[in-house]
Amino acid sequence: MIGSGYENSIQSNGLRDLRKPICWLGDSRDRLRRFPEAARWEAGYQLIQPGRPATDWKTMPLVGPRVTEIRVHLESEYRVFHLDMKRYRELLERRK
Question: What is the Cα–Cα distance from 92 to 32, expressed in whole angstroms?
Fold first, then answer.
């Protein structure tokens, strides 16, 4: 799954919508939908909260630059990998 940065649009109530848009890769969305409801809600919140990192996360440099693992601890353990495309593009620009 790929998060593509911060969306900065105005909602109909005049407030800014700062949720991060998500671009799903492969079957990642279907896999997340198979999580129990509480785990889906928690993972979803961690993915879209604006301007803040997830509450429990770890960088995954062996997977790729700017990839983080979001960890959800409930009755079992759940993991979601996230790539911040906005920061990834910045990294690519610096390498040019």
Answer: 29
